[in-house]
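Lay summary. Proteins are chains of building blocks that fold into shapes, and those shapes determine what they do. In this project we predict the shape from the chain. Here is one chain we studied, written as its sequence of building blocks.
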Amino acid sequence: MADAKKTVKVKLVRSPIGTKESHRATVKGLGLRKLNSVSELEDTPAVRGMINKIAYLVQVL
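And here is the predicted shape, written in a compact code that computers can read:
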């Protein structure tokens, strides 16, 4: 049986307009584009850190 990678779903719930450039880059880095877009990512410490950085813009499903 192959290793089942843990994943985390992230949804963009607030607009990144007017936020810091680095926060907008983080949104893009997580693969989120428009409002309410959902991205399924591997649950790694790097991804968790990105989510924590923009926690006020996203929702973890």
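What the prediction tells us: The chain has a mean pLDDT of 94.
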